[in-house]
């Protein structure tokens, strides 16, 4: 029975996390001697999802799927899973997928495990490794239902390349009206989002005041990074809540996380420790962040950061 | 309006996470428990509806008797009644089944749960509960206004937010933003005294089939010590040549 992957897209663009999801599904499908079907809700004809491992693309077509609505997407995917007889559905850890997946799992009477960080340790019963205690530990959980839903953590598997050519077929789910209606969306279009960012530049109270954030924004711009902040900084109103990362804020699973003037409270570290490489810049060598980081500079952010911006520009000019 | 707030009983955010010898269970030795932070934002918003709009606020937990001090704390900061469903919280699916029973019997108009608990991070109970009750559902909710039966909610999305219109009955997956950190309440002596006499009902749970079972836990392998560098140039060199992230 095939594996269905919810291949999210935004204005026709399939992000790296979606590519990763398809590759992860393909690796499972190869193990299980089946194939991976990428379910899309937008036109994917120019996206060539086969290069990430998809063997088939199923275009779910319905007027209400033009914009994301959790109930509609959950219903459409549930019908698609039934129609294709898929017994595993894989979703990402995006805000939309985290919203939709429990609804879909209930439609399919499926067990659901989110925060999955690797391929199954067993295929009978399907047992997957996933993070728990806000990344302070991991667990192996077995799914006992006939249909299983897996939520993959971002950056947990990576994008793999294939020479597959995936044929596209259409599927028209029957969808009713949703009880929840989106009336407006407010999305910064020119900023790198924390959820998608390869690099996140984050700053804390060590910056002394909101007026000093220009250098953080400049560093982020030079690196193509998203900006983030610690909880005290968002509580003080220096930065918007949407930038707060940590246990009660946003989780970060970037390739590179740079913490500037952040001491490293356990709640902050829990939220960011899925990131691959962590760098700390802090005046206090005793700051707990130094125990969690891979690289550190003991120094004053007001000296180190402008120098780092300058040297990065030179580095980029040389490597351009 | 009758509001039910779902309360997870979780280790304090600063707890050291350890497991028993065969790695099959969380080691509760010396662990302090608190109201799950995401639930506490929802509870505080519910108390606002109680004070401004005359709502009744009940709290519920699915778990053993060890969770009662956490429910008493919710009573001490202002909830009217508490209910504990006496069954082990084995997985999200079975907890959602137990809560659905409570919602139906109590005829609640609004159910607020946290977007996820900070222990198992499943984030699935609110959505599953919505399906079981046939209610609408808004997750990662950062603002909630209710006018009669109509609801305006704001949901945090990746890179922004969206505003939604819906109606009661409704399930909310809440988080910081429903109220601010500074709005959270610390129980005062009067509240603690009152909480002792407020009702805390215990309902026998039914063992409804779990869909998943955690077999074992693992702590992360200890990481290597930090590499300290003196300047930006060295850092860029290491990030490029050693870590290969730039």
Q: What does this protein look like?
A:
The complex is a heterodimer of chains A (320) and B (246). Chain A has 320 residues and is an alpha/beta fold. In chain A, 28% of the residues lie in helices and 25% in strands. Chain A has a seven-stranded parallel beta sheet. A five-stranded parallel beta sheet of chain A has the order 13-12-14-15-16. In chain A, strand 6 and strand 7 form a beta hairpin. In chain A, helix 2 crosses helix 3 and helix 4 packs parallel to helix 8. The longest helix of chain A is centred in the last third of the chain and has 19 residues. Chain A is elongated, with a radius of gyration of 21 Å. Chain B has 246 residues and is α/β, with parallel strands linked by helices. Helices cover 28% and strands 31% of the residues of chain B. Chain B contains six helices and 13 strands. In chain B, the strands form two sheets. Chain B has a nine-stranded mixed beta sheet, sandwiched between helices. A two-stranded antiparallel ribbon of chain B has the order 2-3. Chain B is globular, with a radius of gyration of 21 Å.
Question: Short summary of the structure?
Answer:
The complex is a heterodimer of chains A (320) and B (246). Chain A is of the alpha/beta class.
């Amino acid at each position: 029975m095939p594996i269905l992957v919810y291949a999210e897209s935004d204005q026709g663009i399939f992000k790296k996390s979606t590519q990763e999801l398809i590759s992860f599904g393909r690796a499972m499908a190869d193990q299980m001697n089946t194939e991976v079907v990428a379910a899309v809700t937008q036109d994917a004809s120019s996206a060539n999802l086969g290069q990430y491992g998809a063997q088939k693309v199923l275009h779910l077509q319905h007027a209400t799927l033009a914009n994301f609505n959790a109930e509609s997407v959950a219903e459409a995917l549930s019908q698609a899973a039934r129609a294709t007889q898929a017994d595993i559905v894989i979703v990402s850890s995006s805000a939309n997928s985290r919203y939709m997946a429990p609804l879909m799992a209930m439609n399919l009477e499926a067990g659901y495990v989110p925060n999955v960080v690797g391929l199954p340790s067993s295929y009978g019963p399907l047992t997957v490794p996933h993070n728990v205690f806000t990344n302070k530990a991991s667990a192996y959980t077995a799914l006992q239902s006939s249909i299983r839903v897996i939520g993959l953590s971002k950056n947990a598997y990576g994008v793999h390349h294939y020479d597959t050519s995936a044929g596209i077929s259409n599927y028209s789910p029957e969808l009713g009206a949703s009880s929840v209606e989106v009336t407006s969306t407010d999305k910064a279009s020119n900023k790198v989002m924390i959820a998608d960012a390869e690099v996140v530049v984050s700053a804390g109270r060590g910056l002394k005041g909101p007026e000093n954030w220009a250098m953080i924004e400049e560093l982020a711009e030079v690196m193509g990074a998203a900006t983030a902040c610690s909880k005290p900084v968002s509580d003080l109103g220096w930065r918007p809540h949407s930038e707060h990362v940590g246990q009660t804020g946003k989780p970060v699973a970037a390739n590179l996380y740079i913490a500037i003037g952040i001491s490293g409270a356990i709640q902050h570290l829990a939220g960011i420790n899925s990131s691959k490489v962590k760098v700390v810049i802090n005046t206090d060598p005793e700051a707990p962040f130094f125990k969690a980081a891979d690289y550190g500079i003991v120094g004053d952010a007001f000296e180190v950061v402008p120098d780092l911006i300058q040297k990065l520009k030179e580095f980029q000019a040389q490597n351009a | 309006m009758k509001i039910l707030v779902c309360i997870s009983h979780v280790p304090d955010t600063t707890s050291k996470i350890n497991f028993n010898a065969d790695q099959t269970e969380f080691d509760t030795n010396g662990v302090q428990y608190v109201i799950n932070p995401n639930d506490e934002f929802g509870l505080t918003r519910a108390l606002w509806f109680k004070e401004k709009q005359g709502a009744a606020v009940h709290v519920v937990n699915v778990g053993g008797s060890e969770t009662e001090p956490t429910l008493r704390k919710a009573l001490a900061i202002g909830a009217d009644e508490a209910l504990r469903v006496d069954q082990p919280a084995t997985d999200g699916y079975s907890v959602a089944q137990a809560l659905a029973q409570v919602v139906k019997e109590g005829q609640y108009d609004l159910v607020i749960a946290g977007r996820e608990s900070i222990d198992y991070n499943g984030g699935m109970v609110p959505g599953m509960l919505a399906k079981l009750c046939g209610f609408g559902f808004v997750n990662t909710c950062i603002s909630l206004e209710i006018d009669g039966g109509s609801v305006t909610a704001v949901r945090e999305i990746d890179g922004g937010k969206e505003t939604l219109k819906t109606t009661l009955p409704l399930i909310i997956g809440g988080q910081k933003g429903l109220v601010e950190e500074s709005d959270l309440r610390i129980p005062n002596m009067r509240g603690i005294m009152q909480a002792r006499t407020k009702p805390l009902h215990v309902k026998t749970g039914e063992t409804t089939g779990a869909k998943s079972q955690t077999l074992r836990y693992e702590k992360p392998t200890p990481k290597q010590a930090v590499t300290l560098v003196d300047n930006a140039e060295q850092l860029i060199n290491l990030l490029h040549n050693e870590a290969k992230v730039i």
